[in-house]
């Protein structure tokens, strides 16, 4: 059973001669425990694809199934619930709340959704990501790599079935970038999540199970 | 609440400034309300002390005690649980070099207008008076002999009472005979001439059938005192204006803060934190800021009040201040509505820079 499925999804922006077909008709599916890379030049439609898959952008046409729920028919409130429970976003720049300590970034998620991780799971998460010592620090006191690790912790915290990362390593040097990919791979395998990483850094694709290439709004599976 | 509180803790300086502005507005509101009630009691405290439901005046006096005059026999036509006759006259009192505006009340000492004595004794004979203790501030003392602008009669202060000012002038209480001597001199007739009759009754409409007498409820009577309504309207208008201003100030401050945080809110929304949670957080934050500002403003007002010279007519009415404080918090929250609308409209996609 596919965790994430896109059926004949299209997205165009604007109308008339300004119309841009950011995503041409796309079929896609991803299974549990898969780490998938989407590469391609800037402006090719990678972010459009990812945000549609994450329920942040509605497609011009087509269906998006997350664990068999068609999210194309949901309203904003229901979508926000799906995002909270099923999807972990990791973004290019820091997506941390500047006035919350690392510990409270995670606690915020407890406040919003009713069920939380138990103490053991939380400690394990801190340990896996190596951020235990940072829990009392504010984002402004963290390095870029540390911030990205906290962002990953935040994305993993709700035990989502899908992790969507848009250029998560863009602000990091190579060593840190590899570290982050290593982490994503471990978590994907351990927690059996479905992880999609958008990047234009082809050196990172070695970590991934499948690689898709996006060119002018067309998504193509690369043969290994 | 979690977000609201943690943000305040992290950005203490920023939020202290906002609280400071709210505190100053609250301070001004409380102070004006103190001034309003102080000025009001300057006019009305003697009347409040009667604890009367209404006052009977002549129809043609147009609700003015000073303009009303009728024979005291009319009391027999008045139907009320309790009555107290009152003759009233404005005068300038002088003792030595000290001068003051006074309001002379001619009364029967066995009726309810008779005040409690706080110093000295009751008036018992001709030309003795009990004075409102506000006169002490003008340099008048127990035992002083007072000469009046309008008559040769001399009065002697035999006692003092508190909270006795009428239309901004301290009251001199005396008996009806002395009052008549002062007011009419040799022309005083055999029947006492009085200005009004204060009544305590449950049935104001049934007090009198006389065509030339009018029954005026106490509150209406006070409102028609010269200058009273204009004064309280002015001050109340300023207070209401401040409510509106504080709402706008809060709206602007919060809006600026919210605009700065648009991308942060967008990220949170992308992560699935609902708009409603973020909106409630802004409201909670506003409530915290406003409540702290109001409480500090209240404390500051009371502190200032304790150090003010007694000549400044402030009177702090705690229930009124609590209501105004609540109103301030409510209008501040109204000011937050703008920011809430902004948050609801934020597109999480923009934040992600998709
Ligand atoms: N909100 C938008 N309005 C109009 N055009 C857009 C919008 N978002 C993306 N596009 C266009 O769609 C195409 C794909 O963009 P994007 O998915 O961001 O590419 P990538 O992430 O691969 O760099 C680009 O040509 C971009 O200009
Ligand atoms: Mg992009």
UniProtKB/TrEMBL annotation, chain A:
Keywords: ATP-binding, Cell membrane, Membrane, Nucleotide-binding, Transport
UniProt-listed CDD domains: ABC_MJ0796_LolCDE_FtsE
Mode of membrane association: Peripheral membrane protein
Principal subcellular localization: membrane
Domain ABC transporter, chain residue ranges per copy: 4-224
UniProt-listed PROSITE patterns: ABC_TRANSPORTER_1, ABC_TRANSPORTER_2
SUPFAM superfamilies, sorted: P-loop containing nucleoside triphosphate hydrolases
Database matches in InterPro entries: AAA+_ATPase (IPR003593), ABC_transporter-like_ATP-bd (IPR003439), ABC_transporter-like_CS (IPR017871), ABC_transpr_LolD-like (IPR015854), MacB-like_ATP-bd (IPR017911), P-loop_NTPase (IPR027417)
Domain of life: Bacteria
Gene3D superfamilies assigned to the protein according to its UniProt record, in alphabetical order: P-loop containing nucleotide triphosphate hydrolases (3.40.50.300)
Gene Ontology MF, one: ATP binding
Compartments reported by the entry: Cell membrane
Similarity comment: family membership: Belongs to the ABC transporter superfamily. HrtA family.
Assembly with partners or alone: The complex is composed of two ATP-binding proteins (HrtA), two transmembrane proteins (HrtB) and a solute-binding protein.
Function in brief: Part of the ABC transporter complex hrt involved in hemin import. Responsible for energy coupling to the transport system.
Name of the featured protein: Putative hemin import ATP-binding protein HrtA
Naturally occurring in which organism (per UniProt): Planococcus wigleyi
Automatic annotation (TrEMBL), chain B:
Membrane recorded as keyword: yes
Top-rank taxon: Bacteria
Localization in the cell: Cell membrane
Membrane topology, as annotated: Multi-pass membrane protein
Positions of transmembrane segments: 15-36, 237-257, 277-302, 322-344
InterPro entries: ABC-4/HrtB_transporter (IPR051125), ABC3_permease_C (IPR003838)
Keyword Transmembrane helix set for record: yes
Domain ABC3 transporter permease C-terminal: 236-348
Keywords annotated in UniProt: Cell membrane, Membrane, Transmembrane, Transmembrane helix, Transport
Role of this protein: Part of the ABC transporter complex hrt involved in hemin import. Responsible for the translocation of the substrate across the membrane.
Entry's family note: Belongs to the ABC-4 integral membrane protein family. HrtB subfamily.
Quaternary structure, from the entry: The complex is composed of two ATP-binding proteins (HrtA), two transmembrane proteins (HrtB) and a solute-binding protein.
Protein name: Putative hemin transport system permease protein HrtB
């Amino acid at each position: 059973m596919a965790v994430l499925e896109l059926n004949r999804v299209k997205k165009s922006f604007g109308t008339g001669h300004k119309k841009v077909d950011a995503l041409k008709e796309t079929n896609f599916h991803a299974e549990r425990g898969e780490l998938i890379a989407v590469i391609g030049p800037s402006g090719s439609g990678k972010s459009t694809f990812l945000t549609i898959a994450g329920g942040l952008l509605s497609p011009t046409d087509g269906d998006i199934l997350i664990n068999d729920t068609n999210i194309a028919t949901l309203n904003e409130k229901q979508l926000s619930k799906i995002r909270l429970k099923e999807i972990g976003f990791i973004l290019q720049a820091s997506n941390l709340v500047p006035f919350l300590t690392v510990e409270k970034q995670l606690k915020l998620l407890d406040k919003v959704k009713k069920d939380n991780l138990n103490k053991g799971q939380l400690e394990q998460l801190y340990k896996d990501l190596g951020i235990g010592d940072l829990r009392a620090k504010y984002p402004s006191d963290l390095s870029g790599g540390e911030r990205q690790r906290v962002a990953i912790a935040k994305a993993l915290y709700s035990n989502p079935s899908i992790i969507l990362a848009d250029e998560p390593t863009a602000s990091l040097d190579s060593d840190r970038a590899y570290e982050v990919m290593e982490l994503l791979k471990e978590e994907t395998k351990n927690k059996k999540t479905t992880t999609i990483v958008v990047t234009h850094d082809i050196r990172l694709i070695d970590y991934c199970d499948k690689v898709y290439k996006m060119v002018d709004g067309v998504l193509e599976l690369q043969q290994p | 609440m979690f977000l609201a509180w943690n943000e305040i803790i992290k950005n203490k300086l920023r939020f202290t400034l906002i609280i400071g502005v709210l505190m100053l507005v609250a301070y001004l509101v409380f102070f004006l309300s103190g001034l309003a009630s102080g000025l009001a009691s300057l006019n009305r405290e003697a009347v409040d002390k009667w604890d009367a439901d209404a006052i009977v005046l002549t129809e043609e006096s147009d609700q003015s005690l000073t303009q009303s005059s009728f024979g005291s026999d009319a009391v027999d036509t008045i139907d009320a649980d309790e009555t107290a006759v009152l003759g009233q006259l404005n005068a300038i009192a002088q003792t030595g070099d000290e001068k003051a505006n006074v309001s002379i009340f001619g009364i029967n000492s066995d009726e309810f207008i008779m005040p409690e004595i706080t110093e000295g004794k009751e008036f018992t004979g001709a030309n003795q008076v009990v004075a409102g203790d506000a006169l002490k501030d003008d340099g008048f003392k127990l035992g002083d002999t007072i000469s009046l602008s309008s008559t040769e009669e001399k009065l002697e202060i035999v006692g003092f009472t508190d909270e006795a000012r009428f239309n901004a002038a301290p009251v001199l209480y005396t008996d009806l005979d002395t009052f008549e001597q002062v007011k009419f001199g040799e022309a005083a007739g055999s029947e006492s001439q009085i200005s009004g009759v204060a009544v305590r009754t449950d049935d104001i409409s049934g007090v009198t059938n006389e065509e030339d007498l009018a029954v005026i409820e106490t509150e209406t009577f006070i409102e028609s005192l010269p200058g009273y309504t204009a004064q309280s309207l002015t001050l109340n208008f300023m207070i209401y204006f401040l409510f509106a201003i504080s709402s706008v100030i809060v709206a602007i401050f919060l809006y600026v803060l919210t605009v700065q945080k648009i991308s942060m809110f967008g990220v949170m929304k992308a992560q699935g934190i609902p708009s409603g949670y973020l909106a409630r957080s802004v409201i909670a934050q506003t409530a915290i800021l406003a409540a702290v500002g109001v409480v500090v403003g209240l404390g500051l007002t009371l502190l200032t009040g304790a150090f003010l010279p007694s000549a400044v007519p402030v009177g702090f009415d705690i229930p009124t201040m609590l209501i105004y404080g609540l109103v301030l918090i409510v209008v501040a929250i109204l000011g937050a509505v703008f920011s809430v609308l902004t948050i609801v409209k934020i597109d999480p996609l923009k934040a992600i820079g998709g």
